[in-house]
Amino acid sequence: MRILAAMSGGVDSAVAAARAVEAGHDVVGVHLALSRAGGTLRTGSRGCCTIEDAMDARRAADRLGIPFYVWDFSERFRDDVIEDFVSEYKAGRTPNPCMRCNERIKFAALLERAVELGFDAVCTGHYASLVETPDGLELHRASDAAKDQSYVLGVLTAEQLAHTYFPLGATPSKALVRAEAESRGLSVAHKPDSHDICFIPDGDTRGWLAERVGAETGDIVDASGAVVGSHDGAHAYTVGQRRGLRLGVPAPDGKPRFVLEVRPVTNTVVVGPKDALAIGEISGERFSWAGRAPEAAELRCDVQIRAHADPVPARAEVRDGSVTVWPETPFEGVAPGQTAVLYDGTRVVGQFTIDRTVSALPAATLSAGV
């Protein structure tokens, strides 16, 4: 096959490209320039896609003896990922930029160009597995549960899966990938992983958003509507947050309070006890299926609401253009804008963006402030 290897400059994508070469494929490396004003150097393990990362990717490609190019996707990344991130926060939702990047950049814009240029598949260093079955291609969790990235790939469609290649899916551990990189003479063998939002490399999401959304003071209220504090910008708060609330009125029971809701229209943050974070129902209209769609309108599945959250057994229903999920045990701290990924065992069934949440507590209990 003709393979386009997306090389981020990290160890995973370098080893994935090496395995594609070793498997006998015709491989070309490409690094995506996602910012025209990126920092020259990384800071520890923060960020990715910097000039230094591009240089690391080129050195890896040279070591593998494959052609290498840098493609400027900065404008598309700005419009489809960064602007989406800002607009979601303005609307009081909590977005996942990695999901949007996979959906709109790596497996849409990049894959579209790759196919146009005659490549059969895009190779990445994601930890996930593709399984060929009589019913078609399926996306599954990786062998290494600690590194599994199937959650952030849940946005891929059947057509996109048909043109993807994940060489690391069956690797038992990241340590083995690093050891392999060292044995192949790849200079990125011990390069630290990136853990932050790539376009906020210093990790100060609150400050970054304040510059773009604005910081207007407002009230922090409890579930009954009583003012218990103030904030310098609702965008800086996320559902489930406990630290940094600076509440002037203690809870009647003396227990900590958490962010329950962000209301951008009124610039209000709602707080309450930990029990009030329990969510008994989630739903969303923006959904897609990873491979074949479910045959029935109702299905039993496991649902994961964060990249590293434990999956929760649930019942899901597809009706009237939306997906609704009822977990067997309540989710905790779910915010609109997050992505829910549905699993059947290790197989990714599909995903949806959460538009609505319903508390697991009775309405009367919530209105009383618990």
TrEMBL record:
GO molecular function: tRNA-uridine 2-sulfurtransferase activity
Catalysed conversion reaction: S-sulfanyl-L-cysteinyl-[protein] + uridine(34) in tRNA + AH2 + ATP = 2-thiouridine(34) in tRNA + L-cysteinyl-[protein] + A + AMP + diphosphate + H(+)
Alphabetically ordered keywords of this record: ATP-binding, Cytoplasm, Disulfide bond, Nucleotide-binding, RNA-binding, Transferase, tRNA processing, tRNA-binding
Residues binding ATP, per UniProt: A6, M7, S8, G9, G10, V11, D12, S13, L32, G125
Site positions (Interaction with tRNA): H126, Q338
InterPro entries, per database record: MnmA-like, MnmA-like_C, MnmA-like_central, MnmA-like_central_sf, Rossmann-like_a/b/a_fold
Entry-linked HAMAP family: tRNA_thiouridyl_MnmA
Record-linked PANTHER family: MITOCHONDRIAL TRNA-SPECIFIC 2-THIOURIDYLASE 1, TRNA 5-METHYLAMINOMETHYL-2-THIOURIDYLATE -METHYLTRANSFERASE
Function summary: Catalyzes the 2-thiolation of uridine at the wobble position (U34) of tRNA, leading to the formation of s(2)U34.
Protein name per the record: tRNA-specific 2-thiouridylase MnmA
Species this chain originates from: Microbacterium rhizosphaerae
Lineage, uppermost ranks: Bacteria, Bacillati, Actinomycetota, Actinomycetes, Micrococcales
Gene from which the chain derives: mnmA
